[in-house]
Each structure stands twice: as structure tokens, then as C-alpha cells.
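Supplementary Note 3. Input sequence used for the single-chain structure prediction.
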Amino acid sequence: MHLNPLPCLLAASLALLCASCKPEAPAPDAAGRPKVALVMKSLANEFFQTMAEGAKKHQAAHAGGYELIVNGIKNETDLAEQVGLVEQMMAQGVQALVIAPADSKALVPVLRRAQADGILVINIDNKLDVETLRESRLIAPFVGPDNRAGARAVGGVLAKKLQAGDEVAILEGVTTAFNSQQRRAGFEDAMKAAGMKVVTVQSGQWEMEKANGVAAGILAAHPNLKALLCANDNMALGAAAAVQAAGRAGKVQIVGFDNIAAVKPLLADGRILATADQHGDQLAVFGIEAALKILKDKATPADQQTPVDVVTK
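The predicted structure, written as C-alpha cells, is reproduced below.
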């Protein structure tokens, strides 16, 4: 009996095709070092510049342990550029991707593709949306601070300078960013507990110039305003300039979040009352170290909370 070889050949071809479809983790470099990519938000923001420098110093001190690629987008809202950076890192064959996403939902699809290619994804700074992660089946542990608790603590410092019933306003960041949402919630927690009146919540989109214009409008609309709670220090700097221009320095308190170097003189002279230090120089390092441990030990990815502290004069 003669067997038709065609079905056998087809079966073999399909088996080879299926095998080729299975994702394989990208290979380390020639020295056996894993290649780690750090993808950040706007490098025009001092906070992310500090984060990048901290990561570079860590890699220099552990040069034999891993290779590092550092990049970031031009502004906080350029989602397409950040998606493009992730795709570039995929093309370069990195083993791990440590990302501070500009949006908590929009980056999930490209990160899922990266994971499907065998790349370990570590989420820092701005937490990806839990429900979107679940729906996409993306495993991306969050390594970062409790933003709500940090903002609540900063708001608590401010509350001690005010009287119950005082009018305050909140400048939030990009509204779709989880860390912005959490900082707003923390500020609201503190103001509610102290009996303050939140007269408006508006977005400064994390940017100094944008926040300056928004703060100027709020000050004009609310002559009895006693404080501006800003979800990052860039916006606090813009708000401080608006308060100064309105002739209300010393009458309107300002708080921020991040403890960048540029706010230190304003903390010293009282133009900014308090901020939160989430240790930006170490934030990427925490994510990189988590990635290296998982790659080395084949450990199960898990969230890791990092410190955040209140800073005053």
C-alpha cells in the first residue's frame, strides 16, 4: 500500500510554523548581560532627568551586570511618541522594559505586544490601569510609591496653616494618568478631613506654563482662595509665579509633589510650603533592580512599594 506523502508533509510544515510562532525571550548581549530599556515621560521635566541620571549611575556601578538604554518623550502628553519608543526597544531586542507610562491605559496594547515577544515589563512612576491590565492579560508589576498617601501627607501639612472652611483649589496632572488621579484623591482626602472647601479642580497637564495660566484664572475667579495644591512641582512652580504676579504672595499657600531641585529655593523662602519626595533619583533604579532579580531568579513578578516622604522648609 502506498501512502500519500502530502498530508504528512502538510502536518510537518504546520508543526514547524506553530513552533516558529512561539515567542522567545530576546537573548542577552555577547557578554551575557541582559539589556534593559528605561522609557520615561518628558525629559524636559527635571524629575525625569533626575530619574535618568540615577539609572545611569546605577548601571555604571554595575556595568558587568547589565546593559542600559535610556530614553523619553519630549512632552508629557505625546502618547504616540512613547508607543514608538517601546516599539524601538522591542526591535532592539531588550530583555526588560522599565516604563513610566504617559497614560495608564493607552500604553497597555504595545506593552502587551512586548510581553508577547518575551520581554519583561516593569511599570514605574505612573501605575497602569488594573482593569485594562486584566483585560489584556498583561503582567506588569508596579514598582513605585503610594501617591495617594504621599499627597494626603502633603495636604495635611497645608491644613495646619489654614482654617476650616477656607477655599482651596487643586491642580491635577494629565487626567488619564493614575498617579495624577491618586494625588488628586490624596489632596481631597486631606482637605475633606480638615474641613476645607475645594472650589475647583483643574488640569495643568504636569507642565509649568500650562499650570501658570490655569492658576492665574483660578486666582482671578476666587479672590478668597487660600491655597493651591499641585500634583507635581513643575505645576507648583507655575502656580507660584501666578500668585506672585497676582500680588497675593504670602496669602495663597502652595504645595507640590516630587521635590525637584528647582523648588528648593521656594521651599526655603516660603513661596512653596511643602512637597513630597518620591526619591526620583532611585525610582528607576528600584524598577531596574526588580527586573534584574526576576530575570536572574525566574521569580514571579510582584508589585513593590517604594518610599515617599514629606519635605518642608
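Residues 147-277 form a domain with the Rossmann fold fold (CATH 3.40.50.2300). The chain has two domains: 35-144+280-307, 147-277.
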